[in-house]
Design goal:
Helix content is 67%, strand content 0%. With 230 residues, it is mostly helical. Helix 3 runs antiparallel to helix 4, helix 6 packs across helix 8 and helix 10 packs across helix 11.
Length: 230
């Protein structure tokens, strides 16, 4: 399997979507390019799997970091996820996208690792750097930041990222995973259900609860920013 250097480049930013209706639509159709690469990898072409690693390793690392809360553990989990997927390529039947399948392995490993750890470690001091600017904005938007439009203009991204990352870390494991998959990675409800083995209705209820918790945690910050612009 090709070497993995997770977390070596900024995670690509997604569009800053404004309306919930846009988030209800599936964001990740099955990639024919990915399916072709998987088939080539099955046939023994190592460079094909290397392309999949290069394409997805930083997003997988980002999600693992946001869930497990520790940089070195996230790197190990990313490595392990790709290794497991590589070893199980023959079982992939394209019933979901390769990306969804990969994330199912990685996210569940990260959750299992965190839950089995006796010592809950805090996110490293630079952990928020893995949360790209538009990702922090989107999490802020989904948790009520748009209630104070002036605050959005006054708050610099460099200040927003650690605040939102800290609020995300305050969520429990189940709710943090749903927020990471939905509001950071952009999976739709059906995909999240496949990844976490949950019914779509459960995904929606957990997301609603998680956003409410984030809103509660971030509300004093939004108010302070609003007041500073008055």
């Amino acid at each position: 399997m090709p070497p993995i250097r997770a977390g070596t480049k900024p995670v690509a930013e997604r569009p800053n979507l404004q309306r919930e209706a846009a988030w209800e639509r599936p964001l990740r159709p099955v990639s024919l390019q990915d399916l072709e690469l998987v088939e080539r990898a099955k046939a023994g072409h190592a460079e094909a799997f290397a392309e999949l690693v290069a394409k997805y390793q930083d997003r997988v690392f980002n999600a693992c970091l946001r869930i497990c809360g520790h940089r070195e553990d996230a790197r190990d989990l990313t490595q392990d996820a790709f290794l497991k997927v590589f070893q199980a390529l023959s079982t992939f039947r394209a019933e979901s996208s390769f990306y969804t399948w990969l994330f199912r392995v990685a996210v569940n490993q990260a959750l299992s690792h965190r839950r089995s750890s006796r010592r809950r470690r805090e996110v490293s001091s630079d952990g928020h750097l893995e949360l790209a600017g538009t990702q922090a904005e989107r999490l802020g938007d989904r948790s009520g930041g748009r209630a104070f439009p002036a605050a959005d203009e006054a708050l610099e991204q460099a200040e927003l990222m650690p605040v939102v990352a800290k609020a995300l870390e305050s969520l429990d494991d189940d709710h943090r995973a749903v927020v990471v998959l939905r509001d950071v990675e952009g999976f739709d409800y059906q995909e999240i259900g496949l990844i976490l083995d949950l019914a779509p209705g459960t995904v929606k209820s957990r997301l609603h609860r998680a956003r409410a918790e984030l809103r509660k945690t971030l509300a004093p910050h939004w108010r302070a920013q609003r007041d500073s612009t008055v």
